[in-house]
Design a protein that fits this description.
Shape: globular
Structural class: mainly alpha
Number of helices: 8
Distance between the termini: 71 Å
Number of strands: 0
Oligomer: single chain
Helix content: 55-70%
Order of helices and strands: HHHHHHHH
Length: 177
């Protein structure tokens, strides 16, 4: 064996620290990083969720004829599919499959939660936000399983959809009680 041949050795992955320049360098990065909300130096997932909450309410109030229940359902579905691509590309370019700055998954998930929780007052929306963040951060089973075993863009997106489902389950039980 020729020890000088290193062509079969893997090069170490270089992890990039994302900034505005990185985000603006590709449309997938803009989306995956939540239009900049994921670039927050502290709690980017929470900032992405806040951006999702705010954008849902602003868009629904500003253009109610477009952002109807059916309109939001389509936007969330298409946003999920596009998010798989955006998170895959961004994760690859960052050198980390599920980098903390990628928050499109939180945005799509909180939109899904709000779609089913609204109409609701600010207090109820705040509870929806807090319960979703709990499930997304703590990742109880089976969320943790999906987070650890599903990779790529689909894995990034899916565990947050499961966290949204658990949030809605809590709301269903709360309302039934």
């Amino acid at each position: 064996m020729n020890t000088s041949d290193t062509s079969d050795l893997q090069q170490p992955t270089i992890i990039i620290r994302p900034d505005w320049r990185f985000m603006l360098s590709h449309p997938a990065h803009i989306l995956a990083q939540g239009f900049g909300s994921g670039l927050s130096p502290a709690v980017p997932g929470t900032m992405g969720t806040l951006f999702g909450w705010l954008s849902f309410n602003v868009l629904s109030q500003r253009w109610p004829e477009i952002f109807t229940t059916v309109g939001w359902a389509w936007i969330i579905f298409i946003g999920f599919l596009i998010g798989i691509w955006a998170c895959k590309v961004t994760g690859k370019n960052l050198g980390v499959a599920d980098h903390g700055s990628m928050v499109w998954d939180e945005i799509i998930a909180i939109w899904a939660v709000l779609l089913f929780v609204l109409p609701a007052d600010a207090r109820t929306q705040t509870w929806a936000f807090l319960i979703f963040r709990f499930f997304d951060m703590v990742k109880p089973p089976p969320i943790r399983y999906f987070d650890r075993h599903l990779k790529g863009g689909f894995g990034v997106m899916w565990d947050d959809i499961v966290a949204a489902f658990f949030t809605l389950l809590v709301f269903a039980l709360w309302r039934a009680w």
